[in-house]
Amino acid sequence: MNRQAPTLEDVAREAGVSRATVSRVVNGVRNVDPAIQDLVRLAIDRTGYAPNRAARSLVTRRTGTVALVVSGAGDTSEEEQNAFAARVFADPFFGRVVGGVVGFLRPRSTHPVLMFAESPGARQEVVRYLRQGNADGALVVSTHPDDPLPALLAEAGLPAVLFARPVRPVALSHVDLAHWDGGRLAAERLLARGCRKVATVSGPWAVAASQERLAGFRDTMARGGHPYVPVAEGGFTLDSGVSAMTALLAEHPDVEGVFAANDLMAQGVCQVLRERGRRVPDDVAVVGFDDSSVAAACRPPLTSVRQPVEDMAAAMARLLDEHVRGLRTEPVAVLFEPELVVRESA
């Protein structure tokens, strides 16, 4: 004989509250005392009650999921698509984004669905997925300045929030960092150490954040009496940091300080300097950017400009929640401030 599935009434009896109170907790209504919410959740665990998500969505008009979209600009072959996914999972930045998003969503019984949008077909699939009501909205992390997905989502009138200000204006909310100030902090640290011959490894020049970090660094160095700063372009990867630093040393072997626009590239910078017998920071001071797990694991540990990625990702999820619930109807920008985290490299 099959046991009947637990009901709201069963949970209410177990928790000693009304059925209506259980319903409010299950549906994520906010005006329930936290202590009562805990009682109801314990009763749900004890009874094994499983909400009917289809019925719940009819009441709340929410699916309990959001799409976390990592979007590119045009890779189309299967090999390129696999390489795109591999690059994403290898980057500590993305793990921090996921941590911030999940930290906000989990207490609200909402879960992210990971989607890749690295080709025209994949981007259309994201738009269809949202239009069909499979998720409440999208959190978009673009990896290319020419990414067309934000404009597609805006044109379709779909709820979405972007990580980083888009290069082309689009009517969607976004969170970002004051990147120019981050470059300024790196320059001030190297100037304070007395570095006179300074170089920098930038991110991809087409990326707005790379341009702003480089501008903040160069402007501050110029104000400090150093109008010329050699620069080599990197790609936010360890290997690109190795290549860029190798090129810089070939032309500027007497460099005393280096700013790399992310920690992975800074790690590559330190690797090249170590191989060339240059001590960090005694011979060359190195400053990274992001303050990721790489910064603490690097040898020596990196001085790095902190980008509070987890907080930024949580803010992105909060903005989406407010748009979906109708609390915000116009796009908004949230800008975070960087800070310098001093370790042994500079």
Q: Please, could you describe this protein's structure?
A:
The chain has three domains: 8-60, Orthogonal Bundle (434 Repressor (Amino-terminal Domain)), CATH 1.10.260.40; 65-177 and 310-336, 3-Layer(aba) Sandwich (Rossmann fold), CATH 3.40.50.2300; 179-306, Response regulator (Rossmann fold). It has 14 helices and twelve strands. The model has no long low-confidence stretch (mean pLDDT 88). It is α/β, with parallel strands linked by helices.
Structure summary:
This protein has helices spanning 8-15, 19-26, 34-47, 53-60, 78-90, 92-105, 120-131, 149-155, 179-192, 208-223, 238-251, 263-275, 293-297, 309-324, and strands at 65-71, 111-117, 138-142, 160-163, 173-177, 198-202, 231-233, 257-260, 285-290, 303-306, 333-336, 339-341. The chain is an alpha/beta fold and 346 residues long. It has three domains: 8-60, lambda repressor-like DNA-binding domains (434 Repressor (Amino-terminal Domain)); 65-177 and 310-336, Rossmann fold, CATH 3.40.50; 179-306, Response regulator (Rossmann fold).
